[in-house]
## 1
Amino acid sequence: MSHVTFSAPDLDSFCQLDKMGLRATGQQICDDHSVIEAVTRDPDRWCRTCGALGVARDTEVRRLAHVPLGWRPTILLVRVRRYRCQACGKVWREDLSKVAAPRSKLTRQAVPRALKSVVLDRLTIARVAANLGVAWHTANRAVLDAGRELLISDASGFDGVEVIGVDEHAWRHTRFGSKWVTVVIDLTPVRDQTTSPDEKPPQAGVTHRTVNVQCTHGSNTLRLG
Ligand SMILES: [Zn+2]
């Protein structure tokens, strides 16, 4: 019998705010969305120019879409403190780089969730936007930027790829809208199986057309051979 241990209920860990350096200070549960008010755990009081102690000047609010919890959008209202250096007069706001990218309207945890929803769960951008509680263009831009960064700009993404398969797949089964998508699959493991001394047959169900490619790792370009 497994021994299950429990810890005290904790909104910070449940919502993974602690991983982003935040601490919840309030919550608002509505029928169609939830709002969590939060502040940074470690005040950023020291001047980045001269190192002197700053004094709190005011706060500003940054609204971010977080990972949806409880089947409704979860919004973070982060109250960001601004400080003024007592020695040189420099003014700065607390660093939220662990929480969200600059100018982003989604937390760093919500962005990969949105990308996975589109790529793996095959949700539409409209559905992803509704889940996050953001506008269609906001979700679309976040998914495109994340996809570009994780799937295209990563030069190591094609490491070990020697054979790819191309398949036309019907992803929408309605009378309206585009329903076909071209899928490119790494079939190197299948090729290796067929050329091994054991001469194992290809995996059942793998019927994709294969083409030989040459990978240019530096620029992520594929050249059909
Ligand atoms: Zn200073």
Note: The chain has three domains: 1-108, 110-153, 155-224.
## 2
Amino acid sequence: MPRASSPPRHPEVEIDGLLPHPATGRLFPSPVPPGTGWPGDPATAETPIARTAAQVRRLAGRDRLDTRLSLDELGARVSVCRACPRLVEWREEVAETKRASYAGEPYWGRPIPGFGSTTPSILIVGLAPAANGANRTGRVFTGDRSGDWLFASLHRVGLATQGTSVHAADGLELIDTRMVATVRCAPPQNKPTTRERDTCSPWIEAELRLLAEHVTVVVALGAIGWDATLRSYAALGWQVARPKPRFGHGVEATLVGEGRSVTLLGCYHPSQQNTFTGRLTEAMLDGVLARAAGLRETATD
Ligand code: SF4
């Protein structure tokens, strides 16, 4: 029962700090402990936790091939990572304090694993989770304005089963497409440090390695996603043109490796900064995603 000296913020729903998931009604603390029933939670209480950059490298199989590292296991390990002290503190603080409009919801408050097809032709690479978006819902781009734009566009071009994405039990599926963030934890001011980016990089490299036989198109959202994609493929031994291709909206580059090629497409990030100012319009976003869908069809013909 709540202590008399500290009344709960939502006495109608909150029980000992637990709040109901908006879809399932199941009660969770914020942040959500692994393996407790959150929709899509890939982890269990036994999932190994990386607490240092070296442990990220080891658990992501960067230094030595880890044959147990399936895509599911990778997502589980990502989702419990604690290797960046500043980001762990921030994501958990936001989860505990909550934005007023979401004060009645539990917050995921953990890193965000990849989401979508496990054999995708198209990979979408974003920047980092939003503090009150994916950090709340536990699914990449879900529950924020950027995601509203992105999923609506993916639906219009035939790469998503629905055009809305509000929580991790809404039934949304991506079609032949997967999404990942470059940095898997919500950073203050949406700005991870270079060190945090580097610490997190083995996770995205491992995901690219596991997906390499399927992916033919990568859509990089913003310059950070673009650079992360180039860096990650280079780390896997793929050829990246020199000088490094420069990011721009609609720019295309070809990456070659493992007897395959991948087309990298640049797209302005659907951040509010870009969508409010008209720098990115729905037509521009649809154009790049439709191009990705078209390239994927060509590759599978
Ligand atoms: S940003 Fe990446 S490496 Fe750092 S704590 Fe989050 S998941 Fe781990």
Note: Residues 114-300 form a domain with the Uracil-DNA Glycosylase, subunit E fold (CATH 3.40.470.10).
